[in-house]
Amino acid sequence: MKKEFIVRLQCAECKHINYYTRRNKKTVERKLELKKYCSWCKKHTLHKETKK
Fold it and tell me: How far apart are CA 9 and CA 31, in angstroms?
């Protein structure tokens, strides 16, 4: 059984939660940080994983 969990991605600049994704907690030990488009800031910004 895979241990995948749904995580929220929050914009580092405006703090809005824009994306939801899955990650495996056994294989990926650190928090996700992805550069994604923020519709509130109207530009590509760093999005970090937050608590659920």
Answer: 10
Give the number of domains in the chain. 1
**pLDDT for 42:** 95
Quick: pLDDT tens for 12-42. Answer: 999 999 999 999 888 888 999 999 999 999 9
> Domain range spanning residue 15?
4-50
Would you state the torsion angle of the CA atoms of residues 11, 14, 18, 24, taken in this order, to the nearest 10 degrees?
A: 20
What lies within 8 Å, CB to CB, of 8 at 6+ separation is 17, 19, 20, 49, 50, 52
